[in-house]
């Protein structure tokens, strides 16, 4: 059985997954897979994005040469058209890694905010748990966890405002369970 745990930023997806792990589920976090994938293809990302980053005076790499994910996020929100480019570079890797994970775990959970963007993974899921929480709870959690400025958090919240609608377009209603956290 494969279950998707999804929902907006700081809604409590990781908490739900930690509880499921206690019940014997194997969980894969798509955010971690994205971070790994970005490093695997960082040369492609830098080649595509450095001209935009220079235009915004954003340095995309850390001193150790890895991608500065916060800087990359800032750039992607400055130039939303770059998100599709990044996704076209990293999603094939994430799809492959996730399919390998679920093939080796009979009870698997995919923890991913935008799993709807990879229908080939979403089709594996027998159930989608959509985790939500009050706006101000999420805002406090995100600020404490990520240390981002409130303006950047609010931009991310805005970008995720229609998440549930996206899942409802692709998943039968009886397969979606909404959990308030």
Helix/strand layout:
Layout: E1 2-6, H1 13-22, E2 26-29, H2 30-40, H3 42-55, H4 69-78, H5 81-103, E3 108-111, H6 119-122, E4 127-132, H7 135-146, H8 150-159, H9 163-170, E5 176-180
Parallel strand pairs: 1-3, 1-4, 2-3, 4-5
Helix pairs in contact: 2-5, 3-5
Structure description:
56% of the residues lie in helices and 13% in strands. The protein is an alpha/beta fold. It has nine helices and five strands, in the order βαβααααβαβαααβ. Helix 3 (42-55) packs antiparallel against helix 5. The protein has a five-stranded parallel β-sheet, with helices on both faces. It has helices at 13-22, 30-40, 42-55, 69-78, 81-103, 119-122, 135-146, 150-159, 163-170, and strands at 2-6, 26-29, 108-111, 127-132, 176-180.
The string of secondary-structure elements, in order, is EHEHHHHEHEHHHE
Q: What is the helix fraction of residues, given as a range?
A: 55-70%
What do the pLDDT scores average to? 94
Radius of gyration: 17 Å
Q: Tally of extended strands?
A: 5
Q: Which range does the strand content fall in?
A: 5-15%
Count of helical regions: 9
Largest sheet: 5 strands, parallel
End-to-end CA span:
23 Å
């Amino acid at each position: 059985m494969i279950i998707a745990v999804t929902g907006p930023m700081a809604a409590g997806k990781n908490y739900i997954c930690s509880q499921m792990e206690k019940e014997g589920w194997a969980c894969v976090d798509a955010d971690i897979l994205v971070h790994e994938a970005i490093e695997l293809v960082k040369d492609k990302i830098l080649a595509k994005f450095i001209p935009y980053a220079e235009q915004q005076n954003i340095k995309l790499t850390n001193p150790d040469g890895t991608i500065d994910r916060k800087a990359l996020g800032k750039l992607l929100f400055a130039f939303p058209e770059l998100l599709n480019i990044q996704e076209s570079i990293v999603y094939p890797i994430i799809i492959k890694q996730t399919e390998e994970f679920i093939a080796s775990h009979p009870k698997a959970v995919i923890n991913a905010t935008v799993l709807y963007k990879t229908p080939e993974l979403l089709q594996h899921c027998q159930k989608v748990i959509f985790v939500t929480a009050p706006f101000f709870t999420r805002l406090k959690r995100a600020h404490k966890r990520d240390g981002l400025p409130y303006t950047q958090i609010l931009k991310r919240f805005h970008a995720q405002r229609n998440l549930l609608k996206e899942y409802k377009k692709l998943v039968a209603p009886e397969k979606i369970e909404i959990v308030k956290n």
